[in-house]
Structures are given as C-alpha cells and as structure tokens.
C-alpha cells in the first residue's frame, strides 16, 4: 500500500470522504513545502475553496449508484419495521434552500472547520435520526404552546391552571419523544430513522460549496471593537437546494393508544384522523415550518413536502 503522499488506495475504494481528506492533506503539505508554514493562513481559504468544489464534483459523478443503494436500504428498513409490529410513516421532502446538519462535528469539520453529517459506510450526506427527532420535538413543543404556558406561569392570575397544563404537555412530549435529561431517561414512543437523499438537487448536486465570513474575530478570538475585526472567509460544503430526503417515522402498534393520547394532549391529533395521519402531519409541518440543522433562521434546512405514505402491518391470518 502506498503512503498518503502517493496515490492512496482511496481511489481504488472510491470513498469520497477519504478522497477529500487526502486531497486536503496533500494540498496543505504542498503549500507548506512551497511557501512555508506562515503562508498557510493566507492560502488556506483558497485551498478549502478548491477542496469544496472537488467534493461537489466527485459526489455528482457517483451519486446515482449510491442513491439507488440507499433506496433499497430504506425499503428494507420499512419492511423490517412492518414485520416487527410497527406502522410506518414515509415522507419525501425537498430542500427549498441549502441545508446544514452536523455543522459542529464529524470528519468534514476537520477539513472545513464547518462540518456536515456524513454516513461513513454509504459515503453520503444524511440527516441523523437524532437531528430529525430533535427538530420534530422542538416544533411540537412550540406548536403545543409550551413557551406561552411558561410565560403564563410567571405571575399570572391563572398560574395554577397554567402549571397544570404545562405539566400535562411536558408529559405528552416525553411520551412521544422521550427524556434524556437524566440517567433514567426514556426513548419515547416514536422512532425516527436516519434520513437519506433519494433524489439529487439542482444540477444533479447533493452538496455544494458555501462560504461564511465571521466578521467580529481576530486571530480566532472575539474583538471588542469593530475596527479590530479581520474577516476571514471560511469555505465549506452544505446540502444543495432541491435535494429530496426520505424521512421515516415508526409507531409501535402496541403503543398506539398512548401516542394518540399524547398527541391529543398537545392539540396535535384530530379525532377524525388516524394516529398515523396525525404523525405524518406533525412531521411534514416540522420540516416545512421549523426546519432541521443550523441556520434555519436564514432559510436553511427547510423542506417542502413531495409525498407522504403510511404503511401498516398486514393482519395476521
């Protein structure tokens, strides 16, 4: 096996992530060798820009086969859930703008400083189930008015009523999404799977280059006065607009009544609808109105519903 400085075997194995890390390492070492270590600070933004464009091109060229594999994997996941007594809500949703999930960590953060959630086995960007669950939970909490109830609990005439309603809704949230605040936490009744791209976005892209420019830092430290700032662009990659992700939520049939009661307590369950329809409405609303990941206030991570379907186990003979 050749060393990292030579033609590494990532080309043989076709790992986009490893190829990107390898290209970045070689570019940095080459810059230091030619221009010295002190030049790296000025040269790094251009290096990252080139790496982000290379990553974008690499994944465009191989995404079709990877997406086909993902579709098969997701179909098998749905089949497995049905066989184990779960109703399944499958939602395909399209990014209306860019997306950024997992900005604070992962291997890509070691290259770009801004991360992006990346599946190491499938070699694709994805939305971790924990991020999916957190986004739906946060949206449900706001939709149920828990923030308004917290305000009413502080000094209002109906403080006792507000406290009771707040406690009931928190219990309902815990029943649906679990509670990890202590060692005795529970996982909740709803299951949220990792979401994967099933259709590329504009120009066939799954990711695309992006740049942020922190304005109020100098040498990596916050500045007290604006005139001290030295803005330095930070190139990275984000999810491309138009990418369609598949979001899968599962409901254990033996906890169906519990889920219905919790949704009802939150005001999120319409009596005429099935529990599965209510869950589908909650998830699609969370994706469209709340978004997932970083910079949602800037329009990132917001999805438009493409399709929704509900699958239930076949009755046993």
Automatic annotation (TrEMBL):
Keywords assigned: Antiviral defense
Stated name of the protein: Type III-B CRISPR module RAMP protein Cmr6
GO BP field: defense response to virus
Lineage, top ranks: Archaea, Thermoproteota, Thermoprotei, Desulfurococcales, Pyrodictiaceae
Domain CRISPR type III-associated protein stretches: 104-303
Organism annotation: Pyrodictium delaneyi
Highest rank taxon of the organism: Archaea
InterPro entries, per database record: CRISPR-assoc_prot_TM1791, RAMP_III_fam
One Pfam family cited in the UniProt record for this chain: RAMPs
């Amino acid at each position: 096996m050749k060393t990292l400085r030579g033609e590494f075997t990532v080309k043989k194995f076709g790992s986009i992530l490893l190829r990107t890390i390898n290209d970045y390492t070689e570019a940095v070492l080459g810059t230091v060798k030619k221009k010295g270590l002190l030049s790296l600070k000025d040269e790094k933004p251009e290096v990252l820009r080139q790496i982000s464009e290379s990553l974008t091109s690499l994944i465009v060229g191989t995404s079709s086969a990877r997406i086909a594999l993902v579709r098969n994997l997701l179909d098998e996941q749905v089949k497995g859930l049905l066989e184990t007594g779960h109703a399944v809500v499958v939602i395909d949703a399209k990014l209306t703008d860019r997306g950024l999930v997992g900005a604070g960590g992962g291997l890509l953060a070691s290259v770009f400083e801004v991360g992006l959630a990346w599946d190491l086995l499938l070699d694709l960007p994805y939305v971790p189930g924990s991020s999916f669950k957190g986004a739906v939970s946060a949206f449900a909490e706001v939709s149920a008015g828990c923030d308004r109830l917290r305000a009413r609990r502080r000094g209002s005439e109906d403080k006792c009523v507000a406290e009771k309603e707040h406690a009931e809704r928190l219990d309902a949230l815990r029943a649906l999404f679990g509670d990890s605040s202590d060692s005795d936490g529970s996982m909740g009744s709803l299951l949220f799977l990792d979401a994967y791209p099933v259709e590329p976005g504009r120009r066939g892209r799954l990711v695309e280059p992006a740049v942020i420019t922190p304005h109020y830092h100098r040498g990596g430290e916050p500045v007290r006065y604006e005139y001290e700032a030295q803005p330095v662009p930070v190139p990275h990659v984000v999810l491309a607009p138009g990418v369609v992700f598949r979001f899968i939520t599962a409901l254990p049939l033996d906890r169906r009544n519990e889920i219905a009661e919790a949704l009802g307590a939150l005001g999120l369950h319409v009596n005429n609808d099935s529990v599965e329809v209510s869950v589908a409405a909650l998830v699609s609303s969370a994706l469209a109105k709340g978004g997932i990941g970083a910079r949602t206030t800037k329009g990132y991570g917001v999805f438009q519903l493409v399709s929704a379907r509900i699958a239930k186990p076949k009755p046993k003979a």
